[in-house]
Design goal:
Number of strands: 5
Keywords: Lyase, Metal-binding, Tetrahydrobiopterin biosynthesis, Zinc
Number of helices: 4
CATH class: Alpha Beta
Structural class: alpha+beta
Distance between the termini: 20 Å
Protein name: 6-pyruvoyl tetrahydrobiopterin synthase
Number of domains: 1
Pathway: Cofactor biosynthesis; tetrahydrobiopterin biosynthesis; tetrahydrobiopterin from 7,8-dihydroneopterin triphosphate: step 1/3
Bound molecules: the ligand Nc1nc2c(c(=O)[nH]1)N=C([C@H](O)[C@H](O)COP(=O)(O)OP(=O)(O)OP(=O)(O)O)CN2, zinc ion
Helix content: 25-40%
Family: Belongs to the PTPS family.
Strand content: 25-35%
Largest sheet: 5 strands, mixed
Pfam families: PTPS (PF01242)
CATH topology: Tetrahydropterin Synthase, Chain A
CATH superfamily: 6-pyruvoyl tetrahydropterin synthase/QueD
Radius of gyration: 16 Å
Order of helices and strands: EHEHEHHEE
Shape: elongated
CATH architecture: 2-Layer Sandwich
């Protein structure tokens, strides 16, 4: 079962463990100090047995509430690097964003229910993470 949603945020690709020259060489235009924004799209997939009484794997209303608390409140309309403590020392790539979202959701959902996080940074740049 899957819930799809979007959020907007800005960021800059910059690693504190690299020199300014290395940052510019590796991240190119994405290292511009002014940053840039994305309309991220995220797919959260959960799995489990269908409850005989409710007919649901999980109530989508509950999943929506977890997404709101774990992802939308901390990330939507934020500067990822400045507003989200996790990214103070972690480069705000889509890979790391997928890990952040996985960890935040895994803390809230019953054990083993979270199956996959898919983050679309753009229509063409997509990261899939299954917690491995
Ligand atoms: N492995 C990764 N590489 C890059 C990431 C990332 O998260 N992981 N991110 C970026 C930049 O954030 C950048 O915003 C990507 O933008 P851009 O290349 O312009 O996006 P598109 O591929 O959609 O643009 P086209 O010009 O249409 O190809 C860079 N690398
Ligand atoms: Zn970007």
């Amino acid at each position: 079962m899957k819930r799809v949603f979007g959020f907007s945020a800005c960021h800059r690709l910059h690693s504190k463990s690299l020199s300014d020259e290395e940052n510019k060489r590796i991240f190119g235009k994405c290292n511009n100090p002014n940053g840039h924004g994305h309309n991220y799209k995220v797919e959260v997939t959960v799995r489990g047995k269908i409850d005989h009484n409710t007919g649901m794997v999980m109530n989508l209303t509950d999943l929506k509430q977890h997404i709101e608390e774990a992802i939308m409140k901390p990330l939507d309309h934020k500067n990822l690097d400045l507003d989200v403590p996790y990214f103070a020392h972690v480069v705000s790539t889509t890979e790391n964003l997928a890990v952040y979202i996985w960890d935040s959701m895994a803390k809230r959902l019953p054990a083993c229910m979270l199956y996959e996080i898919k983050v679309y940074e753009t229509d063409k740049n997509i990261v899939v993470y299954r917690g491995e």
